[in-house]
Amino acid sequence: MTTDPIPDRLLALLVELPREAEWVEFKRELSDPVEIGEYVSALSNGAALSGRSNGYLVWGVDDPTRTLVGTEFDPDARVKGNQSLDNWLTTQLAPQVLIRFYVGEVDGMRVAVLEAAAAESSPIRFKGTAYVRVGSNKKRLAEHAAIERRLWQVLQSSAPEDAVELDGLSDDRVLDLLDVAGYCRLVGAEHPSSTDASLALLESEKMVRRDERGGWEITRFGALAIAKDLRQFDRMARKGPRVIEYSDETRMHGVREQAGVKGYAIAFEGLLTYLRERLPSHEEIDPIRRTVDTYPSLAVRELVANALVHQDLAVAGAGPMVEIFTDRVEITNPGVPLVDTDRFLDTPPRSRNERLAAFMRRIGVCEERGSGVDKVVFELEFAQLPAPEFRVHGDNTVSTIFGPRALASMDREDRVRAIYLHTCLRYVSRLPVTNSTIRDRFQLTDPSRASRLLKEALDDGRIRLFDEGAGFKHRRYVPYWA
């Protein structure tokens, strides 16, 4: 275990509190790892309730008098299974919470501090049970319904991007970690003339803020948007987008893999350039020879942007991923979508990460309105490619765009999906779907072939007749939900 010196300002702040708060506990001695774990749960949940970034358990301070008395507690002592205390606590806490120990001497007396990050998406549980401070006592959260309701309200209303990724940072360290020049380039602003002006600019964007120890905190939003290297942020280290290329239609033979390390806003255009170099293209002569991307660049752009912005940041150890096969491209992001995949095209998106989404819209990465799925479907239809597929796989959302495929090579699922999304696209544009539009979509000349395609979608319940009484030649169709 690595312990850090206690920041002077932190200990002074905690000791000067008028009383123990929901997010602070003072102990002369406490060595039982189970009780320590219960306090981590209580203090992490209490920090969330109090709007604090962290909760603190302090050894070596007398609670009633707030005088330093010293402690023999050793964070490096081994616990069950010969694990270090911090590792053992991590295995018993869910969701995982970032904890840190500080040890030092004050006036010749040993003092230790455990710092636990505030709960984010759900209450922190130790061995399956959530705890909370009630007055000066540690209690099971389930025994206090009003506090539990308030905690859930706080967690559900808080922005995940406001969580702290690094704290206790000096002015220079913040500017080492965040790309201020890149930020200014993206928003069209002049580069600040001083360190103080740079930090004020970042603070105004809620990318950084002052912490309880007198240093700076970098928020998750700041790291995700403009980090020079996401690997410098423990919880964000694997949130950089990965691009994996395969030699065939399977995952058996990987050709190359590239992992992004920069913040999304800084790296986005570079990521698209890299993808365009890796994705197939072909030549067309109309009337001059030109190179055309097999997968429309606008469709790829929209889906990659959606994967970055709409991912669930609470899913640890996973980030957006683009997989390039010889017959398709799959774009995966952690998290189950907040909108039914059937309604991606017509329903305004609900983003878990609205601050990040708003910033990405501001710099022209994301759609100002809508999810961009309408553009994806339109571009793929215009390029005469199969319809995209949107599905949930485990805890992930997967968007797939397919390479060229003749109608005769499509199975029923592919054909019905194409009819359904074509109908959705025209419905949101207030345009009817008819036998004629289906022939245009698939470049057919035979009306009976278009009718068979429409019948498949009707039989599968994906579309319905707009007017049941209309004659066969005058039928119009709408999505099943319209």
From TrEMBL:
Identify the Pfam families for this entry. HATPase_c_4, SLFN_AlbA_2
What domain of life does the UniProt record list for this protein's source?
Bacteria
User: Any coiled-coil ranges, and where?
Assistant: none
Where is each Schlafen AlbA-2 domain found? 20-141
Q: Which InterPro entries match?
A: RecG_C_sf, Schlafen_AlbA_2_dom, Schlafen_AlbA_2_dom_sf
Listed PANTHER family: GLPR-RELATED TRANSCRIPTIONAL REPRESSOR, SCHLAFEN ALBA-2 DOMAIN-CONTAINING PROTEIN
**Stated name of the protein:** Putative transcriptional regulator
Q: Which organism is it from?
A: uncultured bacterium A1Q1_fos_515
Its organism's taxonomic lineage begins at: Bacteria, environmental samples
